[in-house]
Amino acid sequence: MPDRLPSPPTTFATVGSGVAARPLGGVEIVVGPTWKTFHWEGSFVTYTDKVLQCADCGVDFVFSASEQQFFAQKGFASAPKRCASCRAQRRATMGGGSSYGNGGGSSYARGPRELFDATCARCGKETQVPFRPTGARPVYCSDCFRLMRG
Length: 150
What we know:
By secondary structure, the protein is α+β, with helices and mostly antiparallel strands. The chain has two domains: about 10-95, no CATH class; about 115-150, no CATH class. A hairpin with a 6-residue loop joins strand 8 and strand 9. It contains three helices and nine strands. It has a three-stranded antiparallel beta sheet, with no helix packed on it.
């Protein structure tokens, strides 16, 4: 799908409480409170406002035609499960909205990291590491690891 609608010469008409735009090529784009029709690459896609129920608070919210178009353009396969206020609250309590900015994973769901006791191969100091040492490779304390990395 293109990033934006094509903009050929257009005629406009009022349809109910919305506005219909009819490009001279014959494709109709109606923008109103309840539905939109878009034309891309020879096919029509029609979106209508949907009333969904929030999975967290149970309140009904509207998944608008323009939001559905946005979801389709981004390749999102399913409709939102939460209303806007619950989504915002969830983002705030989980330390951000996207997992892309924090290393690709969400630390809130994982819980505390398990640490294992080990002895540093360089200085002999007791330390803890986030993996189970097998003895196949040397294990370093954080100070020696930093020195070894240079």
